[in-house]
Specification:
The chain is 31% helix and 14% strand. With 525 residues, it is α/β, with parallel strands linked by helices. It has one domain: Rossmann fold (3-Layer(aba) Sandwich).
C-alpha cells in the first residue's frame, strides 16, 4: 500500500432476483437477471468475484452512461476479481481494462431470500485510483457478522468524469461527466435486482465508503437518480465535494470548469482541430487518455482534475441546499474523519516554506487568505506541516462530516458523528500519524500483528465492526457490549472518539468548522 496525494483518498495498494439458493459454493449456481454464475466457498462464506453489472464502456460507449450487460446462458465462473479501471501509475503486477464494471459478493447465507442486511462498499482513490480488488477491502470478516458485503469498481479520472460541450450536446439530458457516479448507481440497481439470490434484503442496503468513496456516498445521498436504492449510509472521511476544493481548486464540482478541463484534454490530443472531436478522443487508448490528463499528485500544484460535477441531473447544483432542503428522502448516516487527515498529502513534499503555505491559502481563499492563516496559523517553515495537516483535517473532512450530521439532525434523521484517533504501530502510522485511511483495517477487520497491530487494535476493530454491522441491521450503531454512541444534535455537538478508549466527546473543531462553513461557496440560501 502506498500513499497517493490526490484529492480524496489516499491510501492505495496497488456484479430480477434470482431463484437458485445462495451458499452452495463452487458447485452451486446463482441465477442473475443476466445469467447464471458460480462462486467459491471460503471460510464458510460463498464468494463471487468479477460479476459484470454493466456493459463494458468501450469504443462508442466510452463517456456514455452505463448500459445493461449482455445476457449469457452458460454458467459463468466468478472466482477471480475483474480488472481494475484504467488509472495513473498502474501496478505492472495488476490487470487493468476499460471493461472494468464488475462487483464482488461475500455472503454467509445458505439460501436465497434469507433477508440479510447488505453493505455496498465504494472504494476511495481521489476518483483517480483504486479498485474493489484491493486486499484491505476483503469483505469476509464483515460478512461473517451476518451481512452480505458487495464491493464495486467504477470508472475513474478522465474516463469516468470527463465533461465536454459536445458530449453535453449529444446527451438527452444535456449534461456530461459523472459517468463513474452513474456506474455506482447502476451497481446499486443491480443489487436491487439480484441481491436476494445471495440471501440479501434489497430493502436493507447500506452504502459505505472512504475518501472518494465517502464523497460518493455523500453525493448519492442527494442524487435523485439514487432515490430508493439504499436505506443507510456511512461516510468515512469525505463529504459531497464540499471541502474538496481546499485540496485542489479544480476539484470544485463546477460544470463550466469541468467542461473547460475536458476541452483542454481534447486539445492535448489535437482533437479540437478535427471534424469529429469525440470520435478522435475515442480512438485514443485508455492509457493515453489517462497519461495525457496528467492529474496532479500534489496539493501545491494545480492541474486538470476529473471528478463529479453538479450537473443538475445526476446531482443538484448546490449540495448544501440539497441537504438543507431535503429534496431526497434522508437516510440515517454514520459520518466522520481521522485525526491526521492531511499528513498523507505531504508525503514526499519538499521545501515546505511559510511562503508556500501562504500561497496555498491564497489560491483557496483569495481575499480571505489572511483570515484563513489566522485560523490555521503557521509562524515559520517548521510549523507548515502541522498547519497543513490541521487545515486539511478540518476543512476537507471534519467540517463536511459535521455539516452532514447537523443537516440530517435538523430534519429529525439520526446521524452519528465520529473521529478516529487511535494510532497503530504500523510503518505508515509511525510516519504519518492517524492518517487518512488508517480506519480501513479496523472497519474490515483485515489486520495482522506482524504489520504492527496490537491486541488493543484488534479489540477496537471488533468494536467498530460491531457498530457498523449494527447500523446496517437497524439504522442504529448501538448494541450490547458497546459504549453508548449518542445520535448527533447541533446543540450538544457530540461525537464518538475511536481512540485508545472509545468515549463521547463534543465540540470537535467547533471554531474551525464554523469558520470553514462560513467561507464555503455553497450556502443553504
Amino acid at each position: 500500500m502506498k500513499p497517493c496525494l490526490l484529492a480524496a483518498c489516499f491510501v492505495l495498494s496497488l456484479l430480477c432476483a434470482a431463484q437458485a439458493p445462495a451458499g452452495q459454493g463452487a458447485s452451486g449456481v446463482i441465477r442473475l437477471d443476466s445469467g447464471p454464475v458460480s462462486g467459491t466457498v471460503e471460510g464458510g462464506l460463498s464468494v463471487f468475484r468479477g460479476i459484470p453489472y454493466a456493459a463494458p464502456p468501450v469504443g462508442a460507449l466510452r463517456w456514455s452512461p452505463p448500459g445493461p450487460v449482455a445476457p449469457w446462458t452458460a454458467t459463468r465462473a466468478c472466482a477471480a476479481f475483474g480488472p481494475a479501471c484504467p488509472q495513473p501509475n498502474q501496478d505492472p503486477r495488476g490487470t487493468y481494462s476499460e471493461d472494468c464494471l464488475t462487483l464482488n459478493v461475500w455472503t454467509p447465507a445458505k439460501r436465497a431470500g434469507a433477508g440479510l442486511p447488505v453493505m455496498v462498499w465504494i472504494h476511495g482513490g481521489g476518483f483517480q485510483f483504486g479498485s474493489s480488488a484491493q486486499p484491505e477491502y476483503d469483505g469476509a470478516n464483515l460478512s461473517r457478522k451476518g451481512v452480505v458485503v458487495v464491493t464495486i469498481n467504477y470508472r475513474l479520472g478522465p474516463l469516468g468524469y470527463f465533461a465536454h460541450p459536445e458530449l453535453s450536446e449529444k446527451s438527452e439530458h444535456h449534461v456530461s461527466g459523472n459517468y463513474g457516479l452513474l456506474d455506482q448507481i447502476a451497481a446499486l440497481r443491480w443489487v436491487q435486482r439480484n441481491i436476494a439470490a445471495f440471501g440479501g434484503d434489497p430493502g436493507l442496503v447500506t452504502v459505505f465508503g472512504q475518501s472518494a468513496g465517502s464523497r460518493s456516498v455523500s453525493l448519492l445521498m442527494i442524487s435523485p437518480l439514487a432515490k430508493g436504492l439504499f436505506t443507510r449510509a456511512i461516510a468515512q472521511s469525505g463529504g459531497p465535494i464540499l471541502g474538496s476544493e481546499y485540496l485542489s481548486p479544480a476539484f470544485n464540482g463546477d460544470m463550466a470548469n469541468a467542461a473547460k478541463m475536458g476541452q483542454e484534454l481534447s486539445a492535448r490530443f489535437g482533437c479540437n482541430k478535427t471534424g469529429d472531436e469525440l470520435a478522435c478522443l475515442r480512438q485514443a487508448s485508455a492509457g493515453d487518455i489517462v497519461k495525457a490528463a496528467d492529474t496532479s499528485t500534489s496539493i501545491f500544484r494545480d492541474s486538470l482534475f476529473f471528478a463529479p460535477v453538479f450537473d443538475g441531473w445526476a446531482l443538484p447544483g448546490n449540495p448544501v441546499a440539497a441537504f438543507a432542503e431535503g429534496a431526497q428522502p434522508a437516510v440515517p448516516m454514520i459520518v466522520g474523519s481521522t485525526l491526521n487527515e492531511g499528513n498523507i498529502y505531504l508525503a514526499g513534499e519538499q521545501g515546505l516554506t511559510l511562503e508556500k503555505y501562504q500561497a496555498f491559502l491564497q489560491a483557496r481563499f483569495a481575499d480571505e487568505a489572511q483570515g484563513a492563516l489566522a485560523m490555521f496559523p503557521a509562524r515559520d517553515a517548521a510549523d507548515v506541516p502541522r498547519a497543513v495537516d490541521h487545515f486539511v483535517t478540518v476543512a476537507v473532512n471534519a467540517q463536511p462530516a459535521r455539516f452532514m450530521a447537523g443537516a440530517l439532525a435538523g430534519k429529525g434523521v439520526k446521524a452519528y458523528l465520529y473521529q478516529f484517533t487511535r494510532r497503530p504501530d504500523t510503518a505508515l502510522a509511525r510516519k504519518l500519524g492517524v492518517h487518512h485511511g488508517v480506519d480501513l483495517a479496523y472497519v474490515f477487520g483485515n489486520m495482522k500483528k506482524s504489520d504492527g497491530y496490537a491486541d488493543a487494535d484488534l479489540a477496537l476493530s471488533k468494536q467498530m465492526m460491531g457498530y457498523w454491522v449494527n447500523f446496517a441491521k437497524t439504522g442504529d450503531p448501538n448494541g450490547p457490549g458497546l459504549p453508548a454512541w449518542p445520535a448527533y444534535d447541533t446543540q450538544s455537538d457530540r461525537d464518538l472518539e475511536f481512540g485508545d478508549t472509545v468515549r463521547v466527546d463534543s465540540g470537535l473543531y467547533k471554531k474551525e468548522c464554523d469558520y470553514i462553513g462560513r467561507m464555503s461557496r455553497f450556502q443553504a440560501d
